[in-house]
Amino acid sequence: MFIIASIAYAFSIFIDVSVYHLKYYIQDNKNTRHLLALINIFQYFSRGFILIFIPVMAYTTESIKDKKEVWTITIMAHFLVVLFLLPLYSFKFTSSFSTKIIKTLNRFFGKSKVLQLVEVKERAKDGFTFFSTNWILFITNYIAGFLFSISITFLYYVSFYFNQKALILSSLTQFINMFGSMLIILFIDPRIMGAIDDGGGHKEIHILTSSRILVHITLVLILIFIR
Q1: pTM as predicted
Q2: What is the per-residue pLDDT for 215?
Q3: CA 45/CA 168 separation, integer angstroms
């Protein structure tokens, strides 16, 4: 059960990031709204995996009361996120994965509506330029991902040190989570979606993937330090 919780959290983050790849690698000018609706369905699955992670963590914290177990689940979850995100650097994987996901969702939820999917060809990778908007995107997404992830996963471990402040900690983590989510909604999504609309997006998506990986490496290091 505890391993399932770690895997569920990692899948949640994987889905959340891979959604950008779906929007980039496949297009259908005649069915744009239908395609976006299918992608939104896929994105909702990430919330479902979080609903597996949270009850298991709450049960381990409040009923079993095993701090070591909570720490193990948390660090394993962040470590698995890094492993799950690494394949997103592969064009072959992301292109094939995106196409299969859309076709499967269309079969079950789109009533087999015909989609004329256009797969974007692999493009040369662009590097960073210091003091450019690339670094701004990287740092902004790093902060957003850090706030979002630490607010969800660290609550249970920290609660062992403040066991009389559970409600305050819960409210605080929701507040932190809100800031992370707002950064994603207001600054990151428009930047990446705008780049895709302009015929780009490859560089921005890889920046997002890299910053998310660094977030979870940072959280693993923090957990090792506080252990």
Answers
A1: 0.91
A2: 97
A3: 29
